[in-house]
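sanity check both lines:
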Amino acid sequence: MAPHIDHYDWSGGREALLRFGPDTGPVVVAALPLFEEANRTRTFTVGLLRALADRGIAGLLPDVPGQGESLTPLADLTILRMAEALEAVTGACHEAGRRTYALGIRSGTLLDYCALHSGRWHFAPQRGDDLLRELHRIWRAAGHHGDRDAMIYGDADPVEIAGNLLSTDLLSSLSAATPFDRPGSPRRVVRLASDPAPADRKIDVAPLWRRSEPGDDITLAQILADDIAEWIATCEA
């Protein structure tokens, strides 16, 4: 089922999104990993949303401000502002009378905490502090010196990391960011078998985000689509 190109409005402007699946029923709102990881998982996520559409579940893949094809300067953003944009996507679905479920991959799971979702499905969720650690490693590999505070609060603002211009406010907002997990709010966590952290399910596959080039895994997309569809059916019952 081919996606439909659309857009959404938020307080910072207008961004693009892809629509998948039926015009009725619950909607999955997907969030890709932030910064350098996104291009490695976008093709896979599109395939996953196509697989969900084949199962009768609608999906949205919004461009997060400062990511993908967005023209919003990343240096002007924080995690909160990005989350507020996705809240606007969810709000539009609610106004149309449709329930929403978050689909977060890696650090994309940090962006759904503002929205009033009926549930959250997280694949290999990543804490902001872990992402910050990776960004610091990349920053050091580029020839810089110092600890994370030196990276965040040094002379440069914004800080260039792997071609991204990240403000001090954005980097500091990552340090306390965690995936949404509150009692009474449905959440399902799926991780790789190699990840020792707790999960509702673990799958033995190679991580897409460790590849040097964008990749895909059609079999994994089908497995995860089945998992998401069954979980949503349980939540909707």
The chain has two domains: 4-127+180-236, 128-176. DSSP finds six helices and ten strands in the chain. The helical segments are 38-54, 79-95, 128-141, 148-153, 168-174, 218-236. The first helix runs from residue 38 to 54.
